[in-house]
Model the fold of this input.
Amino acid sequence: MPTELTNKQVVCRKPHRCTWCGEWIEKKKPAQYRSGVHEGDFHSDYFHPECYSAMCNSDLGYENEFEPMAQDRGKKWEESASNL
Done:
C-alpha cells in the first residue's frame, strides 16, 4: 500500500512531464504535486490540474496503478483513446 507524503497544488519553477498524459507542464504554470513511498521506493509526480482531476474521477481510481504518461490530457482513463 503506498504511503502519500505530499499532495498539493504548486506553481512549477521549471518544466515537468505530466505523469498522466506525458505532456510538458511549463514553468510558472499550476500543477498538482504528489510524493510518497511505494514498496520502499520514493516517488514524486506532477499532473496538469485537469489530468489530476481526470485521474481522481476515473473508474480506474485514485489508488490504482495506471500506465504513466499514456492517457489523453484531461480525459478519464476510460475515455482515453489508448484504452478504447
The radius of gyration is 12 Å. The longest strand covers residues 3-11. DSSP finds one helix and five strands in the chain. The chain has one domain: 3-83.
